[in-house]
Specification:
170 residues, alpha/beta, 6-stranded mixed β-sheet, 6 strands
């Protein structure tokens, strides 16, 4: 059985930086980032159109990895319980691990401005409004970890459920 790692949180908060660090330390891991699929389907990760073909293409690739017993890392906002639980429903044979990147609003705004694909400010603020903070009672997750302050290389890890510190060799 493969392992499914979901890095989630607000845009601009550092999920991609964390994903890069985890991928460097775990070369067997396969990363799936929706922006790469927007680039594949639309020709540019900044064009967030054709939602269904983008997610179906990514879903198929993750499913193929699941069938092959590979370990995967998903870098996605997944701000609501329903969005996170979809991954468990869609890919039931994985061992499921969630890493929630906690970043102050100011850091998310700053991070958003530094990257190539800017999320419009109204959409970034809407993410804050609809965010449902993960907690230990979310069903189906083998581990849930909150990670903060990594932008200064000063990691604070809050284990809510299970233990994935070995993966976080950051």
């Amino acid at each position: 059985m493969g392992k499914f790692y979901l890095i989630c949180g607000i845009s601009g908060g550092g999920k991609s930086i964390l994903a890069e660090r985890i991928m460097e330390k775990n070369p067997g891991l396969i990363e799936f980032d929706p922006d790469n699929y927007y680039r594949l389907v639309n020709g540019d990760e900044c064009i967030h159109e054709n939602f269904f073909p983008v997610w179906m293409t990514m879903w198929q690739d993750i499913h193929d990895a699941e069938v092959a017993g590979k370990d995967v890392l998903i870098n996605s906002n997944a701000l609501t319980f329903a969005q996170r639980n979809q991954f468990i429903e869609w890919f039931p044979t994985f061992e499921h691990h969630m890493i929630w990147v906690i970043s102050p609003k100011e850091k998310c705004i700053e991070g958003n401005e530094k990257r190539r694909r800017h999320v419009p400010m109204n959409k970034l603020m809407a993410q804050w409004e609809r965010m449902e903070f993960p907690n230990a009672s979310e069903a189906g997750w083998d581990s849930i970890t909150h990670l903060t302050n990594f932008w200064n290389d000063d990691y604070i890890i809050f284990k809510l459920k299970g233990d994935i510190e070995k993966l976080l060799k950051i």
